[in-house]
Amino acid sequence: QKEVEQNSGPLSVPEGAIASLNCTYSDRGSQSFFWYRQYSGKSPELIMFIYSNGDKEDGRFTAQLNKASQYVSLLIRDSQPSDSATYLCAVNEAGGTSYGKLTFGQGTILTVHP
Amino acid sequence: DADVTQTPRNRITKTGKRIMLECSQTKGHDRMYWYRQDPGLGLRLIYYSFDVKDINKGEISDGYSVSRQAQAKFSLSLESAIPNQTALYFCATSDTGTGADEQYFGPGTRLTVT
Predict the structure, then answer these.
(1) What is d(CA A10, CA A107) in angstroms, rounded to the nearest whole number?
(2) B67 and B79 in contact (C-beta within 8 Å)?
């Protein structure tokens, strides 16, 4: 059973701070890593993906990947109240007939307070 | 118009009834997925289809069946609904052709079984 674990949260940060969301995964062969944002009652929305070790930046969001440690994180700089949501980490399955499937973590609830 | 649509958006049904949830997409993607989401349990895969003739069980397929009527349509059926199938159901799509595994979600169907 492939597993994806996220920091349990909920995470509360003040407006303007950096929010750090963390995720570990068990499938060492995984190659693709995704962060989704989900507002309450809405569907998950893809915000970032990363394939290579290191950092990937997109606006206020930075994804960090360390395959050796099987660890992926999402940093949100200058957090805004509109960033308050549940953040889901997803990891692809490495091979065989299930290649392309994603395994999702249970999500971390982020609250940004003014 | 939305790229991935789900009908109905909300449904209340009684125990023992058969119910079908429908998903359509205009993204031209070949892969489609059905997930359910329960509070605290994240997204769990019910069934997935990599093309019209390829349908596979996910981690929680018992009590569910699917039909891939066309590349753009993927339906989920509950043969005899039970209360613990009360959940938020999402359809998602992805595209083999890009070489990436990111999935795009429909708006969801909130199902209540009484």
Answers:
(1) 9
(2) no
Place of tokens 């995470």: A11
Picking from B110, B98, B114, B112, the residue whose alpha carbon sits closest to that of residue B7 is: B110
d(CA B73, CA A79): 38
Q: Largest Cα–Cα distance of chain A, in whole Å?
A: 47
Percent helix / strand / coil, chain A, rounded to 5: 5, 55, 40
Distance CA A14, CA B83 (A): 40
| Cα torsion angle, B20, B26, B28, B32, sign | negative
Closest Cα in chain B, distance from residue A110 (Å): 14
d(CA A72, CA A96): 23
Straight-line distance from the first to the last Cα atom of chain B, in angstroms, rounded to the nearest whole number: 33
42-71 of B, contacting A, C-beta below 8 A: 42-43, 45, 48, 50, 56, 58
Which tens digits make up the pLDDT trace of B23-63? 999 999 999 999 999 987 789 999 999 989 999 999 999 99
Contacts of B14 (CB under 8 A, 6+ apart): B81, B113, B114
